[in-house]
Amino acid sequence: MALAVRLRIGHDRRVDRTARLALAVDRQGGRCLWCGRRFGPLIPPTTEHLVPRLKGGPSIAANEAAACPRCNADRGHTGPVDWLAQCRSRHGWAPQASLLATLLNALDVELDNVGGHRRAKRYLSGQLRRCRSGQ
Fold this sequence. Notes:
GO terms for molecular function: endonuclease activity; nucleic acid binding; zinc ion binding. Helices cover 50% and strands 6% of the residues. By secondary structure, the protein is mainly α.
């Protein structure tokens, strides 16, 4: 519940991108969502959209995670569940599937609360189904 409450600031358009990125870094313990590398001067955090903007994903805190530049660029518009699988099989990384599931569920709750974002909701529903089935 605390995560959902903290994410609500994301629909306040006065909250700037830097503050939303700082929130994502904090909630992920200062590590990249995908590869787990710790952020620092040589590995700066970047904003990663869980539901890509191309798929209707809004730029709100609930849809934003922190990723290193390499992971953000490599993922592109690949869905989060597919990218999670690629991180494991192709790269041998151990991303936290439970954290991704928590973030996707929090985004689902946020979009239900504010309404709208039909394209993002459809895309997110598919990702959540795949996440729950272990794909």
